[in-house]
Amino acid sequence: MSNCLNSIRIEYHILQSFPVTCLNRDDVGAPKTALVGGVTRARVSSQCWKRQVRLALSELGVKLGTRTKKVAEFIAEACRKMGANEEMALACSEKIAAYLSDDTLLFISADEARCLAEYAKEQAFDVEKIKEKELAKVAKKAITPALDALDIALFGRMVAKTAELNVEAAASFSHAISTHKVSNEVEFFTALDDLEQTQRSAHMGSLEFNAATYYRYISLDIGQLAQTLSTKELQIAVKAFTQALFLAVPSARQTTMSGASPWDFARVFVRKGQRLQVPFESAVKAENGSYLQPSIVAMKSWLDKKEKLSGSLFGKITSFDWGEDDNFSIDDLINKLTNTLTDQRVEMTTQVLQPELG
Hints:
Radius of gyration: 25 Å
Shape: flat
Strand content: 15-25%
Structural class: alpha+beta
Number of helices: 12
Distance between the termini: 25 Å
Helix content: 40-55%
Number of strands: 11
């Protein structure tokens, strides 16, 4: 389905500095790293930050789906609420769950579970009457992420066994990387036993950490989101998503290292054309004891240059710089973004209607 916002995306280029932290650990508990431009960079995986964004959406009061392997239990609860006894609820839910997924995590919303339970109720909760062909129709009809699962619309869903449930993701996250070279450091620590009379260590250990200015890139496909949600809920979704991006911080070792740093600088585009991610291929050098300011300069310079070189293919509609003007808050940024999308929708709708009116 086409819509007037097709091919429009919001791109967030974010710089965010953290002091001593271990935001995202590898298999041995050390901060994740990557080799970029021949030097080691600090790294936070896209999966890590996406999960925190999803949790932040929940804290903002946004209804989310449930990602679980316990699909049968989830649907069984919906069947019980519809009046099924325990035996019927389990039998029907296991058959429906087997149709939807194998031993994999499935994104499913409460409304989808309710629709599937309603179908089971129409069959008098008789498991023999539940047919796969009819389940496919019910599943397709039940896709309503706008109602109670914005995270499914944002992050997508791929269901190998039931293509009718597939939802294309609207949001794309890069791995966050430091703009500069990083070397993980080791903290050696000891712990004392409160009941031990002699002052000696009862435990020794070590932790790895680093400090970094991260570059985060997130692309939000507005056309895709409008297809999934309808344009009516679009402004609410963009507001909640931007707020969640601003609030979300990875949770690893927050109680011992407290990485509680918000955005420092962001350039946010509303544009068409191919996605544009700053590679920071050359590591930034510190200036006056700071990586942040030279990172801002490097990011602006790279984006400005690409905008000039791309010419008409850059597809810029508008852009906003956040973090340098004290009078331009995150609320102001969100208002600018949502108003821009409204203006675009009106403008494009007018362009479509004018030939018909003429």
